[in-house]
C-alpha cells in the first residue's frame, strides 16, 4: 500500500478561497437567500471555513447548519455495526433558500442522496447546490457537484483520506493505493 499526498494545507486553503468566490460570484447569489449545510463530519468544518472566508471577502455571515445522514443511509443492513449517530442542527428555515451542501469527498453519490433525503425532511429549498473538496469519480447515482475543489482520478480500490485540523490536527488529503 502506498500513500500519496494530493493536497496540503496551502492547497486546501486555496480551494476554500476559490469555492467561496465561486459561491458569491453566481448571478443568483443573494446573502439573504443562501445557507451553508455541512454533512457530518468534515463537511461541517468545510462549511464553517467557507462561511468565514465569505465573511472576510464580502463582509456578511451566511447561516451554517450541520446535517447527520445516519438514518438515511442505504447500507445500514450491509454493515456489521450501526453507524455512530450524530445530530442534525439546522437552526434556520431552508424553505425557499439556496442550500449549498458541503462534503469532503464525492465518490458513489450515495452519501449525497442520503443528505438530500435529510434536507427534504427539513423543508423545501428553492435549490440545492453541492460543493465538495474532492471529486474522485466512480458514481453509482446521477449526482454532480456544482463546486469542486479538485478532481482526482482514482481506482475504486483506492482510499481517499481527508484530514482537517479541526478534528485531525492537520490539513491534507492522502490517497492510499491498495
How would you sum up the major sheet? 5 strands, parallel
Q: Which band does the percent of strand residues land in?
A: 25-35%
Provide the CATH top-level class.
Alpha Beta
Q: Domain count, please report it.
A: 1
Compute the number of helices.
4
Please state the CA-atom Rg, rounded to the nearest Å. 16 Å
Please count the beta strands (DSSP E, at least 2 residues each): 8
Give the second-level CATH assignment, the architecture. 3-Layer(aba) Sandwich
State the low-pLDDT regions, or none: none
The CATH topology is Rossmann fold
What is the terminal-to-terminal distance?
5 Å
- Sketch the topology as an H/E string, one letter per element: EHEHEEHEEEHE
Structural class: alpha/beta
Fraction of residues in helix? 25-40%
| Overall 3D form | globular
Mean pLDDT: 93
State the strand order across the main sheet.
3-2-4-5-6
Summarize this structure as a short list of keywords or feature phrases:
Rossmann fold; five-stranded parallel β-sheet; alpha/beta; 178 residues; three-stranded antiparallel β-sheet
Tell me what the structure shows.
With 178 residues, the chain is an alpha/beta fold. The protein has one domain (10-154): Rossmann fold, CATH 3.40.50. Helices cover 29% and strands 29% of the residues. The protein contains four helices and eight strands, in the order βαβαββαβββαβ. It has helices at residues 9-25, 42-58, 110-122, 165-168; strands at 2-7, 34-39, 63-67, 98-106, 127-135, 147-151, 159-163, 172-177. The strands form two sheets. A five-stranded parallel beta sheet has the order 3-2-4-5-6. β4 (98-106), α3 and β5 form a beta-alpha-beta unit. α1 (9-25) crosses α2 (42-58). The longest helix is centred in the first third of the chain and has 17 residues, at 9-25. The model has no long low-confidence stretch (mean pLDDT 93).
Amino acid at each position: 500500500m502506498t500513500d500519496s499526498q494530493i493536497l496540503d494545507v496551502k492547497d486546501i486553503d486555496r480551494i476554500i478561497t476559490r469555492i467561496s468566490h465561486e459561491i458569491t460570484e453566481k448571478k443568483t447569489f443573494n446573502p439573504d437567500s443562501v445557507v451553508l449545510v455541512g454533512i457530518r463530519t468534515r463537511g461541517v468544518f468545510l462549511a464553517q471555513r467557507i462561511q468565514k472566508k465569505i465573511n472576510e471577502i464580502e463582509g456578511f455571515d451566511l447561516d451554517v447548519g450541520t446535517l447527520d445522514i445516519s438514518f438515511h443511509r442505504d447500507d445500514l443492513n450491509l454493515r456489521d455495526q450501526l453507524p455512530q449517530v450524530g445530530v442534525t442542527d439546522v437552526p434556520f428555515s431552508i424553505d425557499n433558500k439556496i442550500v449549498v451542501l458541503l462534503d469532503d469527498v464525492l465518490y458513489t453519490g450515495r452519501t449525497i442522496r442520503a443528505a438530500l433525503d435529510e434536507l427534504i425532511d427539513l423543508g423545501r429549498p428553492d435549490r440545492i447546490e453541492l460543493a465538495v473538496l474532492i471529486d474522485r469519480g466512480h458514481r453509482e447515482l446521477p449526482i454532480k457537484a456544482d463546486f469542486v475543489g479538485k478532481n482526482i482520478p482514482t481506482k475504486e480500490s483506492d482510499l481517499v483520506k481527508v484530514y482537517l485540523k479541526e478534528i485531525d490536527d492537520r490539513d491534507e488529503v492522502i490517497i492510499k493505493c491498495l
